[in-house]
Amino acid sequence: MRALPDSRATGRRRWFVRVQCRPDAAGTLAEAIAARDDVSWVSTTSGGSEIVCVAFTDPHTAHGSVLARLPRTSQVLSFTAFAVLHMHVGGTAKWLAFDDPLSPDQLAVLRSGRTGRPDPVGRPDAAIRDDDAPLLAELARDGRIGVVVLARATGWPQSRVSTRLEELLTSGGLHVATDLAPAQFGFHATAYLWLTVTPGELHATGQALSLHPETTFTAAVTGAANLLVTVTCRSVEDLYTFITTKVGVLPAVHQVEVVPVLHRLKQAGTRVRNGRLVME
After folding, report:
1. How far is residue 246's CA from residue 223's CA, in Å, rounded to a whole number?
2. pLDDT tens-digit profile of 57-74?
3. Any bridge partners for residue 195, and if so which?
């Protein structure tokens, strides 16, 4: 679990990147990409010759981003970057595929917290400040860390830590990300779906797909395939059922490219080793 700044509050842009590389270099290159702090959700796909990841670019330091380095990397044959235009959030959680999900009342308590803090909506209204850096660095390592430890690590008074945390969480400038290991819960079929959708129906289609329990992420993106959906299913058969009965029936969907994840190396902020999450 990590507490991370919202990209809308920092001004960073989110990209999905598909990297085509030599099959014999994919493992080493994927590990190098996963080691970067500005990259998350790193996976190998397409027979092991493609790497898919989420990259973040900062307008103030774009020259040091992974997008700037890929053209100069000899193992890379080609790559395509898709800017995220709009993320669809369906329901009260991003993934509700467990057999015994939380009830609406339990979700309300979990999301509001003990203070009764409402769930932030819309654009975060608290800007990330330069002096937040030490606080954000500690929270990025462990989102469960307490105020006392944060005060000691940052050198701030506890009152300042508590006040700033409340401001960032209430405004949506800071959000809590929890990584899970789906395979440990019986989910073994994860895939990226690149959809080509009628532009006028893009928002409605994305919103509809985001409501399904198999969906873990849905976003409108740049490029010919203008809607990206990531899904996590128990089996390949379940993935097939999802594509044919929930995606294929939507009239605005003209084309679907299914890209199965072969191996995931990194999630939002946690490395994956042998199907388990590890802190590094």
Report:
1. 23
2. 877 665 678 898 999 999
3. 227, 256
Please give the model's pTM, rounded to 2 decimal places: 0.78
**Residue 135: is it exposed, middle or buried by C-beta count within 10 angstroms (0-12/13-18/19+)?**
buried
Taking residue 251's Cβ as centre, other Cβ atoms within 10 Å add up to 9
If you search the block for the tokens 């509809």, which residue do you land on?
208
> Which neighbouring-strand residues pair with 192?
230, 259
Locate 29 and state its tokens: 């290159």
Q: Give 276's strand partners.
A: 273
Distances (CA, A) of 134 to 84, 130, 189, 240: 28, 9, 38, 46
Question: Residue 217 burial (CB < 10 Å; 0-12/13-18/19+)?
Answer: buried
CATH architecture, domain 9-83+268-278: 2-Layer Sandwich (3.30)
User: What residues does each domain of the chain span?
Assistant: 9-83+268-278, 88-103+185-261, 107-177
Please state the φ and ψ torsions of residue 224, each to the nearest 5 degrees.
-65, -40
